[in-house]
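Bumping with the actual sequence this time:
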Amino acid sequence: MGSKPCLYPDPTYRPLETSWDSDEDTPVPRCGHTLTAVATTKTHGARLIFFGGATASSIRLPRANDSVHFYDVLSRKRIRLHQSGDTPSPRAAHSAAAAGTMVVFQGLGPRYGHVMDLVAQRYLVTVIGNDGECNL
């Protein structure tokens, strides 16, 4: 006896307007960046962190950047963060994962196409990309 496939309709999407308070908060057009969701805490709602990326057509890092932006889902505002401590180097085609409220970045240099995820809220699993040419 055959079973019927369970079909679900596509969700309905709608555009959301975002804003920022200063020109410094405006992200530049880029490719090869990461976007990572960070969990809600007692003091902050849901947030998205986006980092790095190349501003040229090649991801061989001729114009990679190290800017980190924070997007608050509730207020719909983007803010450029200025991290303290060791600043991540400019990069593109890297990966990121959230471990609680901490975002971990990995990748740079002769390799690209990394993937990373937190498994069972305990193990950070990273798969290193390859070192060949990237044809986007």
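The tokens above came from a reply further down the thread. The beta strands are 34-38, 47-51, 68-72, 77-81, 95-99, 102-106, 115-119, 123-127.
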